[in-house]
């Protein structure tokens, strides 16, 4: 509001001086204020400022061809019509003059939103109308006999109304529009497939000991398997899988041949607000609104998007961390109780990190990256004790979505695929993440020794990658295995395949090779081989069948990259699975001397089991099947956390 009123300052001064019959001084003061105080707005092409300048220059010229008495007599009428013309012209060319002032107070990501533009169209329209009403009132003075002070008094009313409208309309309109969008979206959730069947959330938090085991549990298992996933506690009014929801951790504790199950919500500050109010309050990536804003306390989180910390869970330096994307982690304890936001540096704002981190098995260092909305990628490196030892910023040209990355002995490699994030995109009728292939894919190679030095940039054709398996060095080349999509269309996500990319650091080239033609995702390796040459990759796979139209994973593949072969463990069409985590056997000597652990869902019984496979006898029957006390919805990523807890 203040910015708009400053735009009217030349006009206000003009009328003040005009009241003392100082016509030339009035025009001169208006011109001086326009040039001196609004020079930056002139450079930026502000319509009101330029209109003001041109009007007073024209008025200054007219003074040499007509009498001051005539101009003084008609000054109010002329000025009102001039302001109405300027404001009306800005509407005519679809650039409401108030929009330019509003941008000074509103973050850039909102500038193209339909709501922001529509609000300013209304406000500019009201100002245009108020100026026209004033012009009409000024005209009446020449045809009626009322006291001039009467007209001057009532001429303030349209301006007062315009000021009041400018102050109150944006909040009213945003609340009205958000309420409409929320109601529409809430109805749509009834048919959301990712809130049904085994994607349907559960609300019960359990702990059960001595679970029933079929088969033989490996005697060397001591540790926790824990998996994270989206699980809204309250029915959401906006839900885009796998980007929205509350975090729920499911854990199995292995000790002395016995297994305990436990599940807990990640109790974020936003979830605590919703628990207090008894309903979903925060929106999602496709609808970033807060429902019933007036119910929030001043200390409650004000971010309109639910950040549930539901994507991954890791342990580093004895800190158990529930991870999200491009935001802070939440720390939990070994019993899955939420401690709070993880702030290892005790800074005013906690470190942001992505869901995927990379730990060097030789040094114990943990590498993290995060993207945001400011065309930046941040990186942090923690030593094995959890101390921050390196951090910095990579300036990139766009708000790339960078979900994962890889490390080698000497390098950090980041793929900048042309998926651009805009959390205000819903207001523009778009998805929050858009595919822009004209940007191509850029690959950044950073030296681990000098992360802040020059980056090796390698250009490639456009493609998208969510997840990497691993990377390692071969002389002046880097070998990277990952899952590749030909593009990224949210409404029609195409199959993804296992790929190998070879980076030639001297020539700055990338050679891409498809390794398989089956639709796979969630690659895992023996994490002891992170940054080293690996032989095996394990992924869930779609195996299409005429008997079912489901496209949910029901089998695992073990890829042998040395022999270019693979083995499939098919659980059958009645079973649905997701990521499997590799667990090395105690004192293992071979890369595949260990186990694969995963949750399975059985459609006929509508129950979940926990399965342990022998990685070396991959196609054989499971070593052990553990009966679970409740259904475990499909989730995202998990970890094996060895040792006592």
Give me the secondary-structure topology:
Layout: H1 2-7, H2 9-18, H3 23-37, H4 39-43, H5 47-62, H6 68-92, H7 97-102, H8 114-140, H9 148-154, H10 156-188, E1 207-208, E2 213-215, E3 223-230, E4 247-255, E5 258-265, H11 269-277, E6 282-284, E7 287-290, E8 312-316, E9 319-323, E10 330-332, E11 338-341, E12 358-359, E13 366-371, E14 376-382, E15 388-395, E16 406-407, E17 411-416, E18 419-421, E19 433-435, E20 441-447, E21 456-460, E22 468-474, E23 477-484, E24 497-504, E25 509-514, E26 536-541, E27 555-560, E28 565-570, E29 575-577, E30 581-584, E31 594-602, E32 607-614, E33 624-627, E34 638-642
Antiparallel strand pairs: 1-5, 2-33, 3-4, 3-34, 4-5, 6-7, 8-9, 9-10, 10-11, 12-13, 13-14, 14-15, 16-17, 17-20, 18-19, 20-21, 22-23, 23-24, 24-25, 26-27, 27-28, 29-31, 30-31, 31-32, 32-33
How many E strands? 34
CATH topology of the largest domain: Methylamine Dehydrogenase, Chain H
Ends: how far apart?
A: 57 Å
The number of helical segments is 11
* Cα radius of gyration in angstroms: 32 Å
Number of domains: 2
Shape estimate: elongated
Q: How much helicity do the residues have?
A: 10-25%
- At the first level of CATH, the class of the largest domain is Mainly Beta
What's the name of the CATH homologous superfamily of the largest domain? YVTN repeat-like/Quinoprotein amine dehydrogenase
Pick out the low-confidence regions. Answer: none
Largest sheet: 6 strands, antiparallel
State mean pLDDT (0 to 100 scale): 92
The second-level CATH architecture of the largest domain is 7 Propeller
What percent of residues are in strands? 25-35%
Structural class: alpha+beta
């Amino acid at each position: 509001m203040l910015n708009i009123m400053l735009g009217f300052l030349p006009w206000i001064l003009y009328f003040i001086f005009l009241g003392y019959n100082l016509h030339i001084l009035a025009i001169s003061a208006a011109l001086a204020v326009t040039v001196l105080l609004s020079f930056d707005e002139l450079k930026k092409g502000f319509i009101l400022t330029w209109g003001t300048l041109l009007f007073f220059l024209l008025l200054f010229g007219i003074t040499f061809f007509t009498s001051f008495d005539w101009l003084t007599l008609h000054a109010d009428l002329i000025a009102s019509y001039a302001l109405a013309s300027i404001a009306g012209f800005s509407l005519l060319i679809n650039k409401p003059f108030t929009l330019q002032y509003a941008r000074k107070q509103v973050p850039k990501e909102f500038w193209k939103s339909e709501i922001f533009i529509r609000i300013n169209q209304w406000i500019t329209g009201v100002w245009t109308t108020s100026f026209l009403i004033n012009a009409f009132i000024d005209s009446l003075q020449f045809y009626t006999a009322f006291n001039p002070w009467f007209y001057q008094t009532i001429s303030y009313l349209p301006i007062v109304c315009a000021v009041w409208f400018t102050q109150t309309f944006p909040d009213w309109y945003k609340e009205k529009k958000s309420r409409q969008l929320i109601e529409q979206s809430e109805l749509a959730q009834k048919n959301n497939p990712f809130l049904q069947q085994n994607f349907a959330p559960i609300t019960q938090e359990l702990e059960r000991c001595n679970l029933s085991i079929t088969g033989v549990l490996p005697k060397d298992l001591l540790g926790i398997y824990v998996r994270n996933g989206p699980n809204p506690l309250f029915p959401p009014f906006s839900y885009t899988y796998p980007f929205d929801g509350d975090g729920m951790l499911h854990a199995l504790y292995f000790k002395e041949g016995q297994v305990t199950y436990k599940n807990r919500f990640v109790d974020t500050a936003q979830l605590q607000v919703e628990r207090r109010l008894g309903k979903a309050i925060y929106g999602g990536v496709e609808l970033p609104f807060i429902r019933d804003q007036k119910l929030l306390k001043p200390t409650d989180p004000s971010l309109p998007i639910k950040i549930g910390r539901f994507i991954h869970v890791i342990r580093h330096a004895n800190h158990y961390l529930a991870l999200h994307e491009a935001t802070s982690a939440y720390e939990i304890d070994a019993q899955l109780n939420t401690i709070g936001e993880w702030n290892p540096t005790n800074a005013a704002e906690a470190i942001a990190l992505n869901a995927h981190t990379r730990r060097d098995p030789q040094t114990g260092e943990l590498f993290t990256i995060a993207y945001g909305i400011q065309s930046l990628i941040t990186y942090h490196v923690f030593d094995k004790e959890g101390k921050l030892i390196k951090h910095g910023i990579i300036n990139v040209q766009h708000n790339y979505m960078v979900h994962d990355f890889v490390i080698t002995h000497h390098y950090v490699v980041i793929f900048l695929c042309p998926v651009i994030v805009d959390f205000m995109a819903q207001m523009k009728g778009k998805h929050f993440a858009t595919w822009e292939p004209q940007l191509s894919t850029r690959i950044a190679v950073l030296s681990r020794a000098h992360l802040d030095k020059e980056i090796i940039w390698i250009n490639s054709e456009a493609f998208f990658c969510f997840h990497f398996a691993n990377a390692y060095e071969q002389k002046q080349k880097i070998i990277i295995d990952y899952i590749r999509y030909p593009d990224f269309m949210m409404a029609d996500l195409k199959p993804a395949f296992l790929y190998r990319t070879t980076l030639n650091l001297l020539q700055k080239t990338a050679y891409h090779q498809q390794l398989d033609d089956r639709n796979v995702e969630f690659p895992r390796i023996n994490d002891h081989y992170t940054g080293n040459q690996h032989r095996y990759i394990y992924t869930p796979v779609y195996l299409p069948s005429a008997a079912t139209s489901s496209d949910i994973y029901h089998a695992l593949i073990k890829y042998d990259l040395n022999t270019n072969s693979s083995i499939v463990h098919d659980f059958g069409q009645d079973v649905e699975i997701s990521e499997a985590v590799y667990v090395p056997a105690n004192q293992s000597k071979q890369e595949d001397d260990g186990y694969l652990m995963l949750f399975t869902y059985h459609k006929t019984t509508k129950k979940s089991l926990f399965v342990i496979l022998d990685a070396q006898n991959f196609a054989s029957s499971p070593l052990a099947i553990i009966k679970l006390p409740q259904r475990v919805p499909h989730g995202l990523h998990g970890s094996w956390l060895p040792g006592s807890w």
